[in-house]
Amino acid sequence: MNDVAPNAKKGSSAFGRYFFVLLLGLVIGAFGAVYALNALSSNPQSQFQQGSMHVMGWNMGQLKQNVAAAKCSASDSIPRIQAINVMARDLESAFPKYADDAAFVKAATDLRTSSNNALMAAPQTCDGVSQAMRNIGLSCEGCHSKFKD
Predict the structure, then answer these.
(1) Rounded Cα–Cα distance for residues 92 and 104 (Å)
(2) Which of 25, 83, 130, 140 is most buried by a 10 A CB count?
(3) Do both 139 and 94 map to the same domain?
(4) What is the SS3 assignment for the chain?
(5) Same-domain check for residues 106 and 83
(6) How many structural domains comprise the chain?
(7) In Å, how far are 15, 20, 44 from 114, measured between CA atoms?
(8) What pLDDT sits at residue 41?
(9) What sections of the sequence does the record tag as coiled-coil (predicted)?
(10) What is the C-alpha separation between 22 and 18, in angstroms, rounded?
(11) Cα–Cα distance, 69 to 126 (Å, whole number)
(12) Helix, strand, coil shares of the chain as percentages rounded to 5?
């Protein structure tokens, strides 16, 4: 009679299974530790700064796409310019280390002015939207050339 169970696999061992589970646990633990450390070290102020820049950049990109697609009605452009304007109102709050810097305050004010002017002009043609984008872009460049971290 044979002592080997009929369903047992040849070559399989408890050591192999335990080793695989140990390696799997180490990999999952490493990913979990990295995730937890990133969550603990994230800076809400930095997230606000990055978020502000992303929102304004995304809206400028949408305006650019609209011009390229000849979708330049007021209903297409005004919401994008409004979003840029809203974010521009909080630049000193987003970047408190520059809030007392006269050059930064001027650049932030220039952005608010250019986005306000674009809203008041309510561009309805692609030329008007392009001009608004140029003015807003120059305001952005005025700040980024000196203060981009």
Answers:
(1) 8
(2) 140
(3) yes
(4) CCCCCCCCCCCCCHHHHHHHHHHHHHHHHHHHHHHHHHHHHCCHHHHHHHHHHHHHHHHHHHHHHHHHCCCCCHHHHHHHHHHHHHHHCCHHHHCHHHCCCHHHHHHHHHHHHHHHHHHHHCCCCHHHHHHHHHHHHHHHHHHHHHHCC
(5) yes
(6) 2
(7) 70, 61, 28
(8) 67
(9) none
(10) 6
(11) 10
(12) 80, 0, 20
In a domain, 6, yes or no: no
Burial class (CB in 10 A: 0-12, 13-18, 19+), 9: exposed
- Predicted confidence at residue 46, as pLDDT, reads 82
Residue 2 DSSP symbol: -
State the pLDDT at residue 5: 53
Per-residue pLDDT of the chain (149 residues; tens, 9 = 90+): 555 555 555 556 788 888 888 888 889 988 888 888 777 666 777 888 889 999 999 999 999 999 999 999 999 999 999 999 999 999 999 999 998 999 999 999 999 999 999 999 989 999 999 999 999 999 999 888 888 75
